[in-house]
User: What shape does this take?
Amino acid sequence: MTVVHDHTHAVEAAPPPPRRGWRRYTAPGWWRVLWLVPLSALFATALVAGSRAALGYDPLLLQAVWLTTLTVIVPLGFLVGIGGFDYWAYWVSGRPTRPEDHSSHGAHSWKDYFRVNTDHKVIGIQYLVTTIVFFVIGGMMAMFIRAELAEPGMQYVNTQAYNGLFSMHAALMIFLFIIPAFAGLGNYVIPLMIGAPDMAFPRLNALSFWLLPIAGLIMLSSLFLGAFAAGWTNYVPLAVEQPNGNLMFQMGVQWAGASSIMTALNFLVTIITMRAPGMTFWRMPLLVWANFATSTLVVIATPFIAGSQFFILFDRVLHTDFFNPGAGGYVIGYQHIFWFYSHPAVYIMMLPGFGIVSEVIAVFARKPIFGYRLMALSLMAILILGFSVWAHHMFVSGMANWLRVPMMVTTMVIAVPTGIKVFSWLATLWEGRIHFKTPMLFALGFVSMFVIGGLSGVYLGSVPIDIHASDTYFIVAHIHYVLFGGSLFTIYAGIYYWFPKMTGRMYNEKLGQLHFWLTFIGFNATFFPMHWVGLQAQPRRVADYDPSLGNWNLAISIASFALGASTLVFLYNMIVSWRSGEPAPSNPWRALTLEWQVSSPPPIFNFDEIPQVVGSPYEYGTRGARHAIVNGHSTEAETPAPTEELVT
Amino acid sequence: MRRRAIIQMLVIGVLAGVVTGAVAVIVPWLPDAASEQANEIDDVYWFVTIICVCIFALVAGVSIYAGWKFRARDDDMDDGAPIHGHTGIEIAWTALPVALVVAMSIFSIIVLDRITTLPADHRTIEVKAQQFAWSFTYSDLDRTEGDLVLELRKPYELQLTATDVIHSFWVPEFRMKQDAVPGITTETYITPTKVGTYAVICTELCGLGHSTMRARAIVLSHADYEKWAAAKPEGGTDTGGTGTGGTDTGAEADGMALFTDNGCAGCHTLAAAEASGTTGPDLDKVLAGKDAEFIRTSIIDPNTEIAAGFEPNVMPSTYGDQLSDEQLNALVDFLLESVGS
Assistant: This one.
């Protein structure tokens, strides 16, 4: 697990000196967390009890108020303790700061992954490992859901627990797995790809990572407070009537959203200002384009879900009436605000995957991306159109009827740029030399599954069909084809593809292929029949269903257990290969993009000299064409060997 | 060479199309169609299906062919052909999808207009949704039922309201779905075309009893409908609920009907009403030995005393407003008798 970076950079980045004795309680780190977290909890409690006593309210510690205050103050205490604000605090208080302070940069031992670290490569791995933990937790919840649905009637859990399981499953997978997993991959890869030594704001980057476990723990704690059980969409008025576990979703979303926004801003500034000389926008790899579009979506859209959950929180805790129909509240208004984020969120969960797949397909087909400029422009088209389709989630909601037709048309039109991308990937395969390695299998698996998810999306985009199919298992099938067959397959592709770069070791190819085929078959066997049970009569989010659908639900459950088991192959491969896989060369895939032109793992500041970009990143098959000159060596397609010598 | 490639690809594409088409046609994807709206919606469904099968066949044809023909050996260090794009092809695969989505949109708009327009002389039924029961008020007949009773081939407008949270009305065989939202009235339209009994299903998560929130939609022929409409509930109040077409007499029968029509059976077990819900407490057990006052309070203000193992705020607290005094008495009497107190 230990990853030791080379010290080839002129600036030495020494680890912070170990603190002994009582001083370790004042230095940033877990010892300081140990007393600051209880102290901040105590402070929050005293604040609530004190102010309520002063106002003569009873009880002193009303749970909703207490929890809200705790979930604001305790995370701040944790962040102060771990050292998220130290440098800024020095700055603000006028104490001396070192302008070239790299003391928190890089990983010298495994312990450096458990502290505030400003190295984008460390943060990328922190993100990925954390999100995979939440992925496993969310996946186990899915297993419980399928166990309960295996036969009609209630067997293992009661309805409250069941509703909590599917709500939490979705919330974890969306907010703590897919979105931050892409942030993790982007964190690791983007500075390398554009020839930058790090992200634009490394301290902000570290802070955005540490918000993530906070968000996850807050959401998980709802299991002990009367589960968050109104579905991840958390529609009102049901959300307002729920036990206080629901409140933990509202606060968890705030921390995850803040993390998301900070990372997106960081990506935007990094991509705009830190590209290596010669890397014009038209020479950026498509992954960078994709993260540019995604980050724009995140920055514009995320405040809307923050607002929607704050309004519910205010209705619950402050007794405002944003969504109280009895007091003139606007019930459907919640859905508009929610989906104004949550539809773009679908693209937040898709576009980075589009980028990954473009990289993988070009490299493993040994071909330039077909229609590169149209590929980049279609990302921007999706970004813009993505903001004009949200009400297709609301065709039967009772919203203003005239909105249905324009939202249907924009929804249909967004199939055009998406179609362009699929066709271009297929055309990239044409006359290629295709190597079916694990990343390529997942990339092609993604294309085929995404086509099915896209086509079922066309059904749902048509208002008359949606009137029948909405809120049924057809929707469950559709979103899993898009988010599992889509996003998750691209995350797998990205992890396998960059695993050698990140860890300096090769994964086990045989296990990788086994993982792919088990996942691919298990996935289709699980989710394809859901289209049918949905169109027949099975609504989504039910703990029990009509016994006539029992056989199919049993089949789906059995397939889902096989799908769940396939994840174990992945985890085993990752852990064992990370510890003892074959050492990876700097460029095992003979790729042209910049991250493969440095050692695996890369030096602590990525490049000893800033590279000079001279051409497109996808010039496979053109003798003598170059993407960049790194340390005097050109990155030619046919000559991967010279970069090997750079590994020190 | 090039012609051969195109022919091989066409063969694969056609095969993929035939297989996908067979899956689309042979598997009965849609339930029975029992309303005019269902027939219209099914037309759009099949139109979209034809287009989707063609696109899927195209994609499958190209990708299977590419995977088969362009596969490289592990030790093959060559690159593919440096093809960067083709303006003509790129224009084609932008324009063709535009044409297809325009066609699907126009078809959908026409059908949407047809399924949401009714002749002026349609009937209206008020649908009230609450946790976890449906009630249907037939204002022309001056009665309220727990079942949706429709006459064959008559156009109906359903006006939906909700008393607590959002619910959604769906009858798969009618294909029509509409949310019932507290604070506003929403509409949906049904013109039934087949006699039969169908399930009314709530499709919007509405709380713990969500999966039990069901009612029956009964389509009757003209003669049967007349018979049902004429069978006025005996001695019942104007809004009194009765079983469908029932000839109920006495407090016991009324109480039983109230019990089922108000959704009690969805959540509670009660042997006398053949109810087996598990979301709420088993009434045969928790009401045994209790007096009328306890039962009445538990209906009006369920949070007063919560049975062991259950959460507060699950059972609606609106029954006090919703049931008249006579109905409440009838229900309490029925429960007293049922549990043998």
